[in-house]
Sequence to fold (128 residues):
Amino acid sequence: MAGSATGRKNRSTPDDKRVRVVRCIRALPAGMVSSYGAIAKAAGWAGAARQVVRILRQVPGLPWHRVVGSGGAIKLGGEGAAEQRFRLRMEGVMFRGARVDMKRHEFKFVKEVPSTRYPVPRAQSRRH
Fold:
């Protein structure tokens, strides 16, 4: 049985997921954006866009302005939206109307390297 010594299966705790979300947000370089849903998916927590919003509100020092709604929409209202737009423009992000130009500025997360627990088989070299 795969699991710990107590026989329970290994599952991600909310703290593990939170750490992964924070890492994904911190990985966003200046001039690039990602959506709440894409960050959740990259962190292994697909469908948890609302939790990404909560984490952005709770953890100080994150580049919150680089996280937008799907399709590049700024989801904040009032002065928050104006500040987000200003910060993104200062980083060189272009807009198409009210939305970020996602074709130019969407950050694509790379898939994580598989765990060393299950090593990836190496390609065998051919000898001629």
Notes: The two ends are 43 Å apart (CA to CA). Residues 23 and 43 are 8 Å apart (CA to CA).
